[in-house]
Write a structure and sequence with these properties.
395 residues, alpha+beta, Butyryl-CoA Dehydrogenase, subunit A, domain 2, Butyryl-CoA Dehydrogenase, subunit A, domain 3, four-stranded mixed beta sheet, four-stranded antiparallel beta sheet, 8 strands, 13% strand, binds flavin-adenine dinucleotide
Amino acid sequence: MVDTKAWRAEVRAWLEANCPASMRLPITPEEMVWGGSQLRFGSEDQRLWFERMRERGWFAPDWPSAYGGGGLSAKQARIVEEEMLALGCRQPQFNLGVWMLGPVLLEVGTEAQKQQHLIPMMQGRVRWCQGFSEPNAGSDLASLRTAAVLDGQGHFVVNGSKIWTSYGDQGDWMYALVRTDPSANKQAGISFLLIDMKTPGITVKPIELISGKSSFCEVFFDNVRVPADQLVGQLHDGWTVAKKLLQHERSAMSKFSEGAAPSHDALAVALPYLYDQAGALREPVWRDRLAALLMDSHAFTLTHQRVKQEAMAGLPIQGPASIMKLVQTEQEVAKYELLTQLMGLRGLSWEGDAFSADEHAISRLLLLSKTYIISGGSSEIQLNIIAKRVLGLPG
Ligand SMILES: Cc1cc2nc3c(=O)[nH]c(=O)nc-3n(C[C@H](O)[C@H](O)[C@H](O)COP(=O)(O)OP(=O)(O)OC[C@H]3O[C@@H](n4cnc5c(N)ncnc54)[C@H](O)[C@@H]3O)c2cc1C
């Protein structure tokens, strides 16, 4: 039985002693430390915080220590998360591997796959990218056509292309969905493969967006040979594995308000705009809208905590993960829409440090928030899942 009070005190003392003050300030996209072969630190504090958390295994506190995790129980790990949140500690490493692939490998990976992949991602040496979407397979993901054929010599030969691969140009490895049985029903002929991005035959092409910047890439596969032991789960049963992974992706996205992504404190930004210089309320309607937003956000936090308790108790969370992802990402959009309206022309300003903590960041984060309601399955798709799987409505 865990003495939660003593554990909480121990965690807090450790975090206070080891998390540098600058690592407790709200994070900006430029300050996110992505693990991988191109690992870079922007400051000594970032490096210290990364290394200290890595040594403790607290990139994933509840993973077994044999795979680089903290070896904690779900309850102990939750306390670590809560204390990090209370002290405003940043996530020390951002890595799709740790958030999404790792939990899936722990559940269905072979021992060899766990040994090969979990420890490097936990040490921040390997960055993962996600190869799911294709030009005609986004929401309707099961229509994907990238083909993988077993060559009889212990390899899959992969041909096709992926699109919207976030940071595909910086990924060391990709977890991908490929079609292994073209004659089977859509979902039935898909497999889940782990692909080394250095394999001959892979071409990565960044997609330039209207802003001139992009994290998106197209990835092309031309007779790419992938060892058969990089198949996760059963052949042709990748859809089952993908559903598990998407559940982790949606859970990760529902933690955005807990510091997992750059975000503003709505109240702190709004307050100077609500009152005039004499301290009088400018317009009651803004206060009402802000109060409603903060209440929604608080209600979400409480519901999120309840869902986490249910997950810890081993209850299925696939439906709740969709609800949490939908509500959290839509709330981020609502927050930034309200802030830009409240700030008037200043809310539209674009100059200055991109994503800095000042008001220049607001319009950019408004645009960023709009991407959250598409990635990981759009809001409409989450609504469909909730209607079908949670409410049991007919298709
Ligand atoms: C920031 C960002 C990062 C991403 N990163 C990755 C990545 O790393 N790897 C990866 O594989 N993919 C990635 N994606 C792609 C993402 O998964 C897809 O954009 C998403 O699944 C939607 O697919 P689509 O763009 O093809 O739109 P479509 O599927 O064409 O949808 C267009 C519109 O139609 C609506 N719609 C579609 N079907 C239905 C339906 N049945 N009912 C109601 N409405 C429907 C959608 O909600 C949407 O509004 C990323 C996307 C974004 C925005």
